[in-house]
């Protein structure tokens, strides 16, 4: 096992090859130049999801679950229950004026 040495030993300068003025310039140098930030286009606000629980007919539930599984295996979107239900509800809500 190697011999332990005090912490102060590790803080001693290893080599005097660094010019003290260069060292001070590096450590205490001037302030950084502010970066020019390009104008960022504002994207649409993200869709926030809320929990929604309801009961539907058993045959509808089975059909939606089967469709979801088959679409996931085929790599077709929408393929999650959430996406399928959102896609099915949106036209009805728009047609009846509930969603702009």
TrEMBL record:
Which top-level group of life is the source organism from? Bacteria
* Name the record gives this protein: Uncharacterized protein
Say which species the protein is native to: Limnoglobus roseus
